[in-house]
Amino acid sequence: MSLMRSVLLAASQNRWLREHATRYRFIRRSVNRFMPGESLDDALAAAQALRSKKLDAVLTQLGENVKDASEAQKVAAHYAEVLDRVHATGLRAEISVKLTQLGLDLSPDLCFEHLKAIVARERKEATVWIDMETSRYVDATLNLYRRASQSGANVGVCLQAYLYRTKEDLAGLLPLRPSIRLVKGAYNEPPHVAIPKKRDMDENYFALAQELLRAKKEDRCARAAFATHDVALIRRIFEAASREGFSEKDLEVQMLYGIQRAEQERLAGEGCRTGVLVSYGSYWYPWFVRRLAERPANLWFLLRNIFAG
After folding, report:
1. How many CB atoms lie within 10 A of CB 136?
2. What are the residue numbers of the active site?
3. N or C: which end of the chain has fewer CB within 10 A?
4. Which one-letter DSSP state was computed for residue 124?
């Protein structure tokens, strides 16, 4: 892991910076590139604009590690509202939730009740995505995903390619015929937990992607979404998919709002199912700094805004 990435990931967890950095105008200007605004209305407007470009939206309210049950209940109620508004407007949009925002730190059973209520609200043809958080939450997250999946629920889970354990986790999930969103990973993890070198992590991502493609071909995976902005890696995955007999229309890629926009539109134009993760909310500081850590180009964008006044 590069020194700059390590520094940024540490900064994303710093409480003082979270409380003070959001006051600076140049930071708020930079955040606007990666999220359409703080309100649900902003996110829905962005989803509508994406739809005109044949892009799907995945909506997520920023926040994590709620402190009390009433706060978790408010988050669950908010996502119920999101789904109601999406259904009423006919948008091509799904949602992605963090389990610590639904009360996982308070009680796995409380969290599951909120998750179950949200999933029941969603249409059967759509997916409620569960985000993966830091490595200490992987077991709890996968356990709740299994509980939700056993009832035949329309739910998917995120797996992180930089964790050494993910190959084994994927193998354990395949008997459930899961829906998987594969990401690289964006948290500050120790080197014995997460692959430290980018090149090695990219190779692990590709190996996991190949396993997902084989599982999808054998109908052991309901849905495989490759969530990455790495164009070269996407090209390798598409080439591997072609060798397995898939066309671009059989594949799904997900990216973040504001990143690789031209590539998003190119993929959608060629028939690939392309989703855009649209984040919104006031709790954006840790999420934003993790975005800076993912790609050096994002950091240079921040620096340009500093000098722009």
Report:
1. 10
2. 131, 181
3. C
4. T
Task: Read off the pTM.
Answer: 0.88
Radius of gyration of the CA atoms of the chain, in A: 18
Spatial separation of the C-alpha atoms in residues 103 and 204, rounded to whole Å: 31
Per-residue b or e along 48-59, where b marks 16 or more CB atoms closer than 10 Å to that residue's CB:
eebbeebbbbbb
Return the beta strands (E) in the chain as ranges.
56-61, 93-97, 128-130, 155-160, 179-183, 223-227, 252-256, 273-280
Q: In whole angstroms, give the CA distance from residue 121 to residue 102.
A: 15
Q: Give 236-285 pLDDT, tens digit per residue.
A: 999 999 999 999 999 999 999 988 899 999 999 999 999 999 999 887 77
Q: Are 154 and 96 in contact (CB under 8 A)?
A: no
CA distance 238 to 253: 10
Query: Hey, what are 210's tokens?
Result: 């190949």
254 is written with which tokens? 């997900």
Q: What is the mean pLDDT of the chain?
A: 89
Reading phi first (left if > 0) and then psi (alpha if -120 to 50, else beta), residue 276 is in beta
For 90-160, where are the alpha helices, taking DSSP H only? 108-121, 138-150
Tokens 């969290």 found at: 111
Ordered DSSP codes for 146-160: HHHHHTT--EEEEEE
Which residue reads 């759509």 in tokens?
A: 126
Whole-number pLDDT of residue 309 = 41
